[in-house]
Automatic annotation (TrEMBL):
Membrane topology reported for the UniProt record: Single-pass type II membrane protein
Family per similarity comment: Belongs to the YfgM family.
Bilayer-crossing regions: 21-39
Protein name as it appears in the record: Ancillary SecYEG translocon subunit
Keywords of this entry: Cell membrane, Chaperone, Membrane, Transmembrane, Transmembrane helix
Superkingdom: Bacteria
Taxonomic lineage of the native organism: Bacteria, Pseudomonadati, Pseudomonadota, Betaproteobacteria, Burkholderiales
Ancillary SecYEG translocon subunit/Cell division coordinator CpoB TPR domain boundaries: 15-208
Localization (cell): Cell membrane
Classification via SUPFAM superfamilies: TPR-like
């Protein structure tokens, strides 16, 4: 096929560009392909990790159902050590904390929740663990430590529970004014259909009523 002068000039330019940058382009393509392959392998690895972790989690649930304390601890330890980046590790720690709490072992229950706070990969799970740990510390009369768990940022969906729990701690400390503010803050964040609104209102009424609701 014959090329006109303009086409020949374009081909010459293309050859010159390829001679100068061809290797670079090739390497970019290779790196991109390697990156894609690595990403695919990572996804496969993650899926494999999640599959294995889910099996351990099912074993943990069965151990809890059987009330096998030694197996519960062994299985949740395996989850946290072998699959710490999966959600199952934190889920397992929650389940184990509840099992320890039910058996009266508050120290071990708190340890499981602390692991989620320190090593969990989900901010939502960490926030929930702080809230639950604050409840255990309240039961243990470690009021200042409970309040520490309730400081900082929390997801919007947990704000009501955080304020309610703060109110409980302040009541235990005898700080009625702070308790009123916390209970009122919780109520202000709820709708009339919220199932715990009446309960929080009863707590507020029990300490002498609240303050003016915050303007919305």
């Amino acid at each position: 096929m014959a090329y006109d002068l303009e086409e020949q000039e374009q081909l010459a330019t293309l050859k010159a560009v390829w001679k100068q940058y061809g290797n670079l382009v090739t390497w970019i393509v290779i790196i991109a392909l390697v990156g894609y392959a690595a990403w695919s392998q990572w996804n496969n690895y993650q899926n494999n990790q999640a599959g294995q972790a889910s099996q351990l989690y099912e074993e943990l649930l069965k151990s809890v159902s059987d009330k096998d304390a030694s197996k519960i601890l062994r299985t949740t330890t395996d989850l946290k050590e072998k699959f710490p980046s999966t959600a199952y590790a934190s889920m397992g720690a929650f389940v184990t904390a509840k099992a320890f709490f039910d058996s009266g072992d508050l120290k071990s229950a708190k340890s499981q929740l602390q692991w989620i706070i320190d090593s969990g990969k989900s901010d939502e799970y960490k926030a929930l663990a702080k809230l639950r740990l604050a409840g255990l510390l309240l039961d243990d009369k470690s009021y200042d430590d409970a309040l520490k768990q309730l400081t900082g940022e929390f997801p919007a969906e947990l704000q009501v529970q955080v304020e309610d729990r703060k109110g409980d701690v302040y009541v235990a400390l005898g700080k009625v004014t702070e308790a009123r503010k916390s209970y009122q803050a919780a109520i202000d964040k709820m709708t009339d259909k919220d199932p715990i609104k009446q309960l929080v209102q009863l707590k507020l009424d029990a300490i002498g009523g609240g303050i003016e609701p915050a303007s919305k």
